[in-house]
Design goal:
binds NADP nicotinamide-adenine-dinucleotide phosphate; alpha/beta; 264 residues; single chain; two-stranded parallel sheet; Rossmann fold; eight-stranded mixed β-sheet; globular; 9 helices
Length: 264
């Protein structure tokens, strides 16, 4: 973990993981345009520098951290604890493509560390602070994948399900204790970002823009919506996948995922 640049500002701040690319970067831009100071994180130090200049050095703290490391998750929390963080956005994440028996175990364990463990750790640490202050928003970026099994990306789909189900359960605990802390889960279908390249595949699905996904997430979060699925078509897909027999949903998804092409 390394602090790349630090703002002196003590205004309400939003911590955005995965801010160096795609959905996280667009969420950071939107929150800045709403007046929040930002703590942006990712591993790409050049992009963290560039983005903090774009968002305004006086309003942005940039921290490079590898969230596949449990130690760096705790270090990140400690480094930003003195800021009045009132929004946590967990957007960092990636997928690994291939049949379960064939894909690299190391890559999958890193994915589980980023997509599940880091989200779990950061959510718990910040939630405790938010509960003490009785205010705060958490936006966890899951996926439409959370609603169904995903052959060829079995670990990724399951990891997004973990984030969805845990966030829903914690949200109910907060509701029962009449907390004003709010949890939302953003569950987009395909989004045009670096995601497929990092997963090592090309897909025929065009997907929505990262701006559209981010806008749905930020608006939904401030409206205290629990589950946010951008786009009517994708809302239909996620609703149907809960109603149809799971074996049918899995078989259809096998065919959809099998159409993706592995990049060389
Ligand atoms: N694109 C889609 O189709 C889609 C659909 C549904 C859900 N999602 C979810 O949306 C979230 C954002 O993905 P995206 O589409 O915006 O993809 P992206 O453009 O590839 O961005 C991924 C972000 O995660 C960060 N990240 C990856 N590994 C990391 C690590 N070990 N430590 C710290 N940061 C790490 C990357 O930062 P660095 O490279 O700087 O570390 C980058 O900022 C993910 O959780 C993804 O699962 C994506």
């Amino acid at each position: 973990m390394k602090i790349i640049c630090q703002s002196e500002s003590k205004h309400a701040a939003a911590l955005v993981t995965g801010a160096t690319s795609g959905i996280g970067r667009e969420i950071a831009r939107l929150l800045r345009s709403r007046g929040y100071d930002l703590i942006i994180t990712g591993r790409d130090e050049d992009e963290l520098m560039r983005l903090s200049a774009e968002l305004g050095h006086g309003h942005t703290t940039a921290v490079s951290a590898d969230l596949s490391s449990e130690k760096e998750c705790f270090e990140l929390y400690k480094a930003v604890r003195s800021y009045p963080v009132m929004i946590l956005v967990n957007s960092a994440g990636f997928g690994v493509y291939g049949e379960f028996s064939e894909v690299s175990l190391r890559k999958e364990l890193d994915m589980i560390n980023v997509d599940i463990r880091a989200v779990h750790i950061l959510m718990k640490l910040f939630l405790r602070d938010f509960i003490k202050r009785d205010r705060g928003y958490i936006l966890n970026v899951s996926s439409a994948a959370a609603f169904m099994p995903g052959p060829f990306m079995s670990g990724y789909y399951a990891s997004k399900s973990y984030v969805l189900r845990q966030s829903e359960a914690v949200s109910e605990e907060l509701r029962r204790r009449r907390s004003r802390v709010s949890i939302s889960i953003l569950c987009p279908g395909p989004v045009r970002t670096d995601f497929n390249r990092r997963a090592g595949v090309s897909s025929g699905f065009k997907g929505i823009t990262a701006q559209k996904a981010a806008k749905a997430g930020v608006n939904g979060m401030f409206a205290h919506r629990l589950v946010i699925v951008p786009g009517a078509g994708m809302r239909l897909v996620t609703a149907l996948s809960g109603m149809l027999p799971v074996r049918l949903v899995t078989a259809v998804n096998y065919s959809v995922q099998a159409m993706k092409k592995r990049n060389q």
